[in-house]
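Collaborator request log, item 7. Partner lab (contact: R.S.) asked for a structural prediction of Olfactory receptor to inform their binding assays.
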Amino acid sequence: MTLGNHSIVTEFLLLGLSTDPRIQALLFVLFLEIYLLTLMGNLMMLLVIRADSHLHLPMFFFLSHLSFLDLCLSSVTVPKMLKDLLSETKTISLSGCLAQGFFVLITAGTECFLLSAMAYDRYAAICHPLLYGQMMKKELCVQLVWGSWGLASLNAFINTLLAANLDFCENHTISHYSCEVPSLFPLSCSDVSVNLIVLLCSSLIHGFGTLLPIVFSYARIVSTILSISSTSGRSKTFSTCSSHLTAVSFFFGSGFLRYLMPTSGSPLELIFSYSVITPLVNPLIYSLKNKEVKAALRRTILKYLQCLRQHERDRP
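Returned to partner:
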């Protein structure tokens, strides 16, 4: 198709990966292992939280949804990246690009809101322990989760719909391993000023709307911890929110690096992408740093081994 004197682009070339076949083979093995570990870790968290009644609490309700989001976020980008590592032509259609950008915005955006809700949960638990049950009722937790999905979906729908109305001419190379909405703007031969304004405004509202509650919650948490007289008491109280604080640092840190630093396509950049690193490390953070999760994991493994032994004894 042509538009005036320009050819209309219907697919894009992803250049965020090495062109050396030997390096591509190594990267494929590396990221396949990362993806499989991500699937195993997050599925394990979902299974343990669902199976162990001790974890049927607001914090772990949010954590189960975080694990589901990490599964989705990783699955939106990594399988396509693995396919491209084995392909000579690393292309993606316009509709596939828009779909990938749409689901990245939904999953990453929902995770922002969910991390903010988890910060409020830690604030309620540490600063108002006697009122925690009233402040974090099941109905509120469900509303916070659905609200997170709803707001992120609205943001993704608006920005993707505007991007779908753009025309793309001649230039069709994207210097990254995945296709996201901001990557399309430099390639368009249409006026993208409205798209940029809407994306900037929605990002600022989204960012400040999630970061400010986190900052406020942790300011109050730190103030409460410092008011505790004993060192052991301060350490024990801080340990209840250290996992979440680490997860927030990884997610927002890798997200800022993705959008504030120039794209190089290096393996290090790929590893520390928010769609690769955070889904991998979140299960490790919450299983290694959280005593309740570690205890529940041990109980689940012991219960599974007991079932295996019972099955062996019952066999004729």
